[in-house]
Amino acid sequence: GPLAARVMLGAGRRLPKGRVLNAQVPGRDAPLPCLSIPTPGQLRADPEVRPAAWAELRMLHRYIIENITKS
């Protein structure tokens, strides 16, 4: 959600929809891939957003497999 994005990215930055963003996290050597998806409450309230959220999670999975596990 918005609070998590502010904590991870700093105030004033937003996670772009449908795009993986690498956030620098203090104490972590490698950047952390982040993806903006609806909250569980939003998914419960609006079932029509579930397919898009699922597609974005699959995209994040592919990104991790292609870019992180090969390191």
Number of strands: 2
SS-derived structural category: mainly alpha
Helical amount: 40-55%
Please write the string of helix (H) and strand (E) elements.
HEEHH
Using the CA coordinates, give the radius of gyration. 13 Å
Q: What's the number of helices?
A: 3
User: How do the strands line up in the largest sheet?
Assistant: 1-2
The low-pLDDT segments are: none
Percent of residues in beta strands? Answer: 5-15%
Q: Main beta sheet, described?
A: 2 strands, antiparallel
The 3D shape can be described as: flat
Structure, explained:
With 71 residues, the protein is mostly helical. Helix content is 45%, strand content 8%. The chain is flat, with a radius of gyration of 13 Å.
Short description:
With 71 residues, this protein is mostly helical. The chain has helices at 2-9, 40-45, 50-67, and strands at residues 21-23, 32-34.
Structure characteristics:
single chain, 71 residues, mainly alpha, 3 helices, 2 strands, 8% strand, flat
Secondary-structure topology with pairs:
Elements: H1 2-9, E1 21-23, E2 32-34, H2 40-45, H3 50-67
Antiparallel strand pairs: 1-2
